[in-house]
Amino acid sequence: MLAAGVDVGSTTTKAALIDENKRVVALALVDTGANVVRAAERALHTALTQAKVEEWDVAYTVGTGYGRYRVPFGDLQVTEISCHAKGANFIFPATRTILDMGGQDTKAIRVGPDAEVKDFCMNDKCAAGTGRFLEAAAEVLGLKLEELGEVSARAKKSLKITNVCTVFVEQEIVMHLARGCPVEEILAGLHWTIAGRSIGLLRRVGLESEITFTGGVARNSGVVRALSERLGARLNVAPESQHIGAIGAALFAWERAAHGAVSQRNNQSRALGPVPGGN
Amino acid sequence: MAEAYRFQGVGRDLQKDLLGQWYQRLENAPRTGTPVAYLFISGNIGELLRSFGFELVFPEVNALQCGVKKVAGDFILKAEDLGYSSDVCGYVKNDIGLAASGNRGPFGTLPKPDLLVCTYSGCNTYIKWFEALAELYGARLFMLDVPYRRTGEQELQQDRDYVVAQLEQLAEVCAELTGRPYNPDHLSELLENSRQAEELWVNILHSARHRPSPFDAYFEAVFFMAPIYVLRGMPECVEYYRAAAQEIEERITHRLGPVSEERFRIVLEGPPPWPHFRTFWELFKRWGVCCVASTYSKVGGIWDFGFRHDPSRPLESLAEYAMNCYTNWGWQLRRRMMERYVKDYQADALVIHSVKSCRSFSVGQADVREYFTKECDLPTLFVESDLADPRYFAEAQIRNRIDAFFEALEHRRVAGPHPGRA
Lengths: 279, 422
Hints:
The complex is a heterodimer. Chain A is 37% helix and 20% strand. Chain A contains eight helices and eleven strands. The longest helix of chain A has 23 residues, at 183-205. The radius of gyration of chain B is 21 Å and the shape is globular. Chain B is built from 17 helices and ten strands. In chain B, helix 3 (59-68) packs across helix 5, helix 7 (157-178) crosses helix 13 (314-323) and helix 12 (277-285) runs parallel beside helix 17 (395-415). Helices cover 51% and strands 10% of the residues of chain B. The longest helix of chain B is centred in the N-terminal third of the chain and has 23 residues, at 10-32. Chain B is α/β, with parallel strands linked by helices. Classes of the chains: A alpha/beta, B alpha/beta. Chain A binds chain B through residues 66, 78-82, 112, 114, 116-122, 124-125, 204, 206, 271-275, 277-279, and chain B through 259-261, 263, 282, 285-288, 366, 370, 373-374, 379-380, 382, 384, 392, 394, 396-397, 400-401, 403-408, 410-412, 415.
């Protein structure tokens, strides 16, 4: 028996497959692009190919992320807040606080011992200090996203970056470049700023140890370093940090399948909880 | 069966008729020579003005009507064209845009004011709003300075005297403008009507203590509360609440309610996002959520803790009323009120809808969230959009937060009873 989770995010779509022993057997990642349905299908098929299985081997599928209602083969939709809680708890069972930084969202989630969400806070209607912010910065600096952490590690000091606006930060970077400031110091400053903004969210839900860092930005060692320094604490970061939401979704699917839920694939899927008849 | 449900829908239909008739009277006012006064809902002393024969216009009500009818966005843009900043209150910009468009809205054409009474001074933007209208219309402006209630169970006697003295001055202004003398007996008659309507309205509000609640104290209350705000003191207002109370009684008898299956009971703080009112309601309804008490239904007056207008002390009771609308209370008093609602109405959670363009009221809400989450261990959700500006409503984000919140509540329910509460 296999259970699948598909996390359709604003920038990337992730899929996870787990087997009957709750082992993660495949993880996939594709760009979301303009066609959400297609992205969900591509991500799942990539995972199926990796695991060398067919679609009918999957007993149950849960969709999550902003595009969760567009996952055509999803049996159930669960918000990414619950999925990140579930996924983080699965990989780091002592997790009590989660920081998830994705393309356009930053979330702070406080969880209990069995992954129940106790409180959460998200960034406002603004992508300031999210993955998109770092993308914009990388573009101006002529770097690839995955290079940011490594380059910033070379900085002897970090510059003070005052802007957290994804649009205006570009101007500030250009200003520093024009003054001849080293790229690594600008980057270290950006990471310091982004970390400060996230800590504000974490404090709002109440910081409790252990802290697990998830989402695409968790792959940036510069942000991890800045967060650890500012918090004075170690952060859990899994190699599959970007897939935590999809893994959480797959775990929800696994639970449903284990409780005898039958996949309604090809029928209309529904959301967890809401009264039948609601959308 | 049809006989058994004969009152269902009465509250909404009758409210619509009454408001339609009121707007018609306003449209006719220039022709009939009826004097017109503009004032705010919060702590309004409408009965005093009505006793001089004024028809009343409430710019906030016009703004919310424009929001619901989805024309607020155009009026707001018009105000921004005139130079109003994007950060200015959505209600103000809607009203300025409306005034600059010949005062013609979805409700008809509004008459110009003969008198502007700034009945609510707790928000400095409101003061500027009426100053702008005074300049625009060249109308007389009376600033009623109502002291803010920061702490304490009772308002101070000197504060009450201060408001009463101003009401006496206002009566002189009204007499001068209308040529009618101040008639305290007539004012008392109107206040007796207010008292009766308030008694009936409170019974409706308290009905939400039932399980399931027969009434949504936010999404339905916004319709049911309209007559007590805009028509208070008039006999038809009393009649309205008599009919509405029958509808609620009938719902209790037949266990009818706003949701088919009540699964969560919430207390709600903050005004609704009017341009997306239906969508917002649906986001809660799909989880079987019923709002059992709200603070927004008290912005015009708090009656459910015992206050009634007193015909034997007309000006004094108007002063007490004006000082004790929800918006005139400091956060300590508001927080205590929400705590009481959670307990009395057995709510599972608190939801705060914060207004982006209203900093004066939104500023303490983060503290309220923190207090209820951390001190009371009560699940509290914070969402933000705007009361009038449709541009601030991001459905995907709001939906995500609401879904995640009720998912978590459901999880808590499965995992066991809430610690610290029965």
